[in-house]
Amino acid sequence: MENVSKKIAEYLLQIKAIKLQPSNPFTWASGWKSPIYCDNRKTLSFPEVRTFICDSFIQAVKSYYPDVEVIAGVATGAIAHGALVAQKMGLPFIYVRSEAKSHGLGNQIEGYFEKGQKVVVIEDLVSTGGTSLGAVRALREAGCEVLGMIAIFTYGFQKAAEGFLSENCELHTLSDYNTLIDCALETGYIGQADVETLREWRKDPSKWGV
Q1: Rounded to an integer, what distance in angstroms lies between the CA atom of residue 188 and that of residue 107?
Q2: Would you tell me which of 20, 24, 30, 54 could form a disulfide with 84, CB atoms 3.0–4.6 Å apart?
Q3: Per CATH, which fold does 2-203 belong to?
């Protein structure tokens, strides 16, 4: 999977799904200042990229979870990716909202599934892990057996690692922060000074730039 990780990092940089601006930080919805911004929805607009990601997801699912019965996508960023994976694998697809709808049937999980079915969760991005693990909990509460989660990219925050550990949920990713930084440096996208800034940020992103 090492070659896959590097290739996806290259793609994300090429299509500007990931932007690195150490000298001009972004502000996340949480209020955190960040030298990096990731928008994996952009991958859907590039056929070559979305196909490679879909095939990589399938390879990972087959490798880690050969007993999978249902593919679940986390709303909204991973709905399309999950549906593509399920379609190619000939499996049922469902998706999980961040919370139950306040109208209609009041569903948090959309689609048909049965209690006890083995589910693999597809995610586009794992940051702190809150939204991702919320989807895992919702599926388990609904009676599904969650085998694990596979995401396109992770920042690799310690908080997320601890969260997945405490929820007893495996997390695999197609690419990650360290691979991305190495790739960006290798291609001249950033310089060595930027690398130090990016690595320092990840140590305590909530206080960085404050």
Answers
A1: 47
A2: 54
A3: Rossmann fold (3.40.50)
Query: Which amino acid is located at 126 in the chain?
Result: V
Please state the rounded mean pLDDT for residues 94-116: 83
The tokens for 96 are 């999980």
- Chain centroid offset of residue 17 CA: 13
Cα 132 to Cα 11: distance, rounded to the nearest angstrom:
23
Q: Where are the alpha helices (DSSP H) in the chain?
A: 2-14, 47-64, 79-89, 130-141, 158-166, 177-186, 192-203
Q: At 109, give phi and psi (nearest 5°).
A: -110, 125
Which residue type does 67 have? D
**Spatial CA neighbour of 91 closest among 118, 125, 63:** 118
Which single residue is written with the structure tokens 């908080």? 159
The tens digit of pLDDT for each residue in 81-91 reads: 999 999 999 99
Torsion on CA atoms 55, 56, 61, 62, rounded to nearest 10: 70
- The strand pairing partners of 121, in sequence order, are 72, 149
The pLDDT of residue 31 is 85
pLDDT recorded at residue 57: 98
Q: Where are the domains of the chain?
A: 2-203
Whether the per-residue pLDDT at 23 is higher than 90: the answer is: no
Helix, strand, coil percentages, rounded to 5, for the chain = 45, 20, 35
Backbone angles phi, psi at 52, to 5 degrees: -65, -45
Q: What tokens does 6 get?
A: 């590097």
